[in-house]
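Researcher: Please predict.
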Amino acid sequence: MMYFRKLIFVLAIVLFASSCTKQIDTTKPYKVSSNASWVQELKQRNPLKDSANITCVYFCYDTIVNDYKASGIFYPIYQEEYKNDIWGGWSYESGVYMIFHNVQTGKEFVFSKMGKWISGDDYCEYFLSKNIMDIFSNSFKGFGKDDAYVFKYHNEKVCSENPLLLEADFQFADVDFDGEDELVICNHGGGPRGCNSFDFYDITADGLVKKKSVNEFSWFAFDEYTKFDTINKSFIWHASESYCQWGEYIYQADENGDFKCLCHLSYFNDEDNNRLIVDTTYYN
């Protein structure tokens, strides 16, 4: 009898130890204790910490990028009328308050996108994060009070002709060919026909300044299909012009750093996927 008691005791210890050493899938965001020191620091810096009716979820990334350690809070939407839906009333469209801390210099800047349910603005901008979408696709059961996650930094490139990373929530890249990296925020599925789109910000001593459109040139037209030519300081936009017809706009920077349209062409692909040019327009 004593032998069997010892055996059961040993088996219990082994099972407990194996449960404690369960492997974490680091290819996706994973939940951690809200008692972590970085979570406690974020709680103190949370601009909405006194808002009782707003859910706050804390996160940090698993990789230091360009000497920046990124962490923050996202504010997911909950709508009671949709509580019986697949995600229990929660939406992956979120507001966000993100802190970028340079581990070499100690300098910081903040990126925020609060959304109209927080800011009250009629024009609503959401934080469309690959990591948040992954949380929803992984047996999502809702968010609790002070949930905390480690986010995966996805560094897969779009293609050799595009320096932008396809799935990274953020990155640093010299998109305007001025020799200085800009902050690039990816809107996952936020572009035409479900493509990823991007927002660009100059990093200044006073914080982030979002790049604005000038005349016919729009920074909002960039997506995962945009091609870059760093040698000639130009890029090609792709646009959907109809159900089966596409367009390309070629822009190049002048001596002042302003981008001018050089050429626009329209085309479609035949049954053998050969490109057939419909029209070409050149600009002075």
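Model: Residues 27-153 form one domain.
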